[in-house]
Amino acid sequence: MNIRCIGCNSIYDRDYRLHREAVGEYMLILTKSRCCISINGVVMKLLPDTIFLWSGKAVMELFADDTPIVCDWICFEADAEKEFLELADIEPDTPVRFADTAFISELMRNIAAEYYSLGSRRTKMLDSYMRILLVKIGETGLRETMSSQAAEPHYGLLLELREKIYRNPQMKWNVDTMAAYVNMSRSYFQHLYRETFDVSCIADVISGKIEKAKEILSETGCTVSQVAAMCGYDNEEHFMRQFKKIVGVTPTKYRKQG
Question: Which residues contact 44 (CB under 8 A, 6 or more apart)?
């Protein structure tokens, strides 16, 4: 894949308007602020943490909503890689929302650093980075097209919250915090969460913590006390009891079995 140009944490004022004709190259945009994008005259409002892959086959305009635009972006050619783009499962010209874009943003910064380097393996490194980036986007994106949002107005937010819970087990998740995240009342949120995922929100939080604990125990030499803290437990004994209740063995025994 041939990168033509790239920008990270680019800031454009409210009067900025990017106009691109069909030029046969792709443009990947990661929004960090609200903005608007128009594809062949159809305007879509993008929220922060949205990925948009412009196909290069339509007239595209990017412009501010009510605040300056902040975004990461990459323009690249991939004529010989169309099959790979299809396998990456990214639908061009369609917004893809994420609960957590930290990894994607960091990867784009690495690509920018490599792009401006003079390393002997620069071309191969950039190609590898781009493939990882596109696969990662295809794997973890929360697809929320305009039609699906209209049909299921709460599903996208709940899915976003659930991914954030599993990615951040160290946070002090409780019903009030989760309900506020999706702007719902306690009772309605608890009902809708169970109806959507067939599990209570608190049980899901615990599952997220235990799954993360199993991962840390299997892949690191951290002590049980450290694992408990990394998974959001203030009390090591409470962590050990909960782990054994769910997994069937103590954390120490689980590590030995692995």
Answer: 36, 37, 38, 95, 146
Q: Which residue has the tokens 């299809």?
A: 86
Question: What radius of gyration do the chain's Cα atoms show?
Answer: 21
Q: Within this chain, do residues 20 and 143 fall inside the same structural domain, yes or no?
A: yes
| Token output for 144 | 């929320």
CA atoms 206, 211, 214, 216: torsion sign: negative
User: Distance (Å, rounded) from C-alpha 148 to C-alpha 144?
Assistant: 6
Instruction: Read off the pLDDT of residues 79-124 as tens digits, 9 standing for 90 and up.
Output: 666 666 666 667 788 888 776 678 888 899 999 998 888 777 888 8
Kindly state whether residues 200 and 232 are assigned to the same domain.
Answer: yes
Over the stretch 170-180, which tens digit does the pLDDT of each residue have?
Answer: 999 999 999 99
Residue 31 class from Cβ within 10 Å (0-12 exposed, 13-18 middle, 19+ buried)?
A: buried
- Both tokens of 45, joined, read 């409002």
> Could you give the CA distance from residue 16 to residue 103 in angstroms, rounded to a whole number?
27
Which domain, by its residues, includes 236? 152-257
Beta-ladder partners of 231: none
d(CA 198, CA 192): 9
**Residue 117 Cα distances to 5, 56, 106, 133, 145, angstroms:** 13, 27, 17, 19, 37
Distance CA 244, CA 207 (A): 13
Q: Domain count of the chain?
A: 2
Main-chain dihedrals φ then ψ at residue 47, nearest 5 degrees = -90, 165
